[in-house]
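Page 37, top half.
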Amino acid sequence: MSKEEALDRALVEEFVTKAHADLNRVTELLDQEPGLVNASWDWGGGDWETGLGAAAHMGRKDIAQALLARGARLDVFAAAMLGKLEIVQAVLAAFPDALHILGPHGIPLLRHAKAGGEEAAPVVAFLEGLLKS
């Protein structure tokens, strides 16, 4: 079994940066290097972020959907932003303390859900209910 060469650091940084807001560039970069789909960038101090994580806290459903279609690993933060109530409920039923885990840049789960707009309103209501109890 051979170990693949690590991805170019500058390419990973550009990919994660562009995943905050630039679907066209994200697509171009994935066409160039499909391995970027799950690559992570450390902004410092262990603040790791993937392209999906970037899209999730920015409310960029288009970028998130494109990444998921290319094999990105779904996490609870992206599920919350995308309005996937059943997934968020299942995660929190299995791991109740996940309600308080912070995503990239220290952004909480509720803020990810709020970034999802109207489609994620049921997730926002669910999380707010848990936070009040």
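Page 37, bottom half:
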Amino acid sequence: MTDTVTIPGYKAGTWVVDPTHSEVGFSVRHLMIAKVRGKFEKFEATFVTAENPLESTVTAKAEVASINTNEPNRDGHLRTGDFFEAEQFPYIEFVSTGVRVDGDDFKVDGDLTIKGTTKQVTFDFEFEGFQTDPWGNYKAGATATTKIKREEWGLTYNAALEGGGVLIGSEVTITIELEAALQA
């Protein structure tokens, strides 16, 4: 394990995710033959980058009611007690507990809370780079991905299929494409 790392363009400070240039998405197997993709339209995240990147932190949350799979009936069902119980549990939240290097890759460990259940997950984190926009704002881009078993968070709804298998797969891939601005 490395005690410190160097990242070209990296600056310490507080960064806020720009939701108009970012996306919190997911995909899950459907009918055992395809994938359904969706996203949360409303979310926020703050990164506090330390002088040593491995001491940085992130907090994030997505509004459950903002789920969008491009199918309004399915989205409505996902907000009910069969899935997320959006009225009782309005947010999905992530709080980092550590940043580490694994070979050439960054890993962000943390606590993911869905439907009142908190479990540790690890996001694979890839810096896409840093850039100053035409208005003088310093921006960072990154992609974070993880896979979870939805049943571990109480998302157990399913239906058996006549031809074998189940309606909804167990494994959910979460992909976050983000652009964040360094705060002055």
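Margin note: The radius of gyration is 18 Å.
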